[in-house]
Amino acid sequence: MKRFFISVFISFFATLIIGAQSPEVVKAGNILDKVSEIIQSCQSIKADFTFTMENTQADITDSHEGTILIAGDKYKASVMNVESYFDGKTLWTYLKEVDEVNISYPDPTDETTLSPSNIFSIHKNGFRYIFAGEDVIDGQKVNIVDLFPEDRNKPYSRIKVYVDEKTHYIKKIVQIGKDGNNYMIDINHMETNIPYEADMFIFDPANHPDVEVIDMR
């Protein structure tokens, strides 16, 4: 479950695609294009978020605070006692509870391991979208876009994306699961163009002398 976070995060943000030209589709496309334009113009993005897993059938809700820093094709994410480091080539997944780090080369064509740094470029295929109305989050008006995967075998039926009307930042994302499991990300705070150093995206075993290294490259 812990390692599943990055996959969910990526799926949530896979939101931009060109579709049919009904008014609702056109409006949704314009909203998502603006999100992409603004995000891709930033040198770096840092977000504090709440990641929630909800099982509607069992009436279970489990929430966790997390952070992510993205700079180009690099990122560092932390949630549920798991830290992920990606320097553009190598991925380190550090499981803090067991003091273990897994090292791998992610497959860029694999949706479940695709870097969050690429989440705004995987929108070219795979989804249909439509404008689904408006709402208010933290006193701010948001536009809602519903996305539907063209692949009927996906474990979710749709993704709801809530976009701040003024800033064009994503405020919330909800993935509706076919099995009753829903995943939500509430973005509590986001900053852009944050200073960073290249070594922030590399796991340094020297800082964890007792860590067990599992190299899967």
From TrEMBL:
Source organism's superkingdom? Answer: Bacteria
Keywords of this entry: Lipoprotein, Signal
* Key word DNA repair present: no
**Signal peptide as annotated in the record:** 1-20
Extract the Gene3D superfamilies matched here: Lipoprotein localisation LolA/LolB/LppX
Question: Pfam families per the record?
Answer: LolA_2
Q: InterPro entries under this entry?
A: LolA/LolB/LppX (IPR029046), OM_lipoprot_carrier_LolA-like (IPR004564)
Q: Which PANTHER family match?
A: OUTER-MEMBRANE LIPOPROTEIN CARRIER PROTEIN
Protein name, UniProt field? Outer membrane lipoprotein-sorting protein
Q: What is the lineage of its organism?
A: Bacteria, Pseudomonadati, Bacteroidota, Bacteroidia, Marinilabiliales
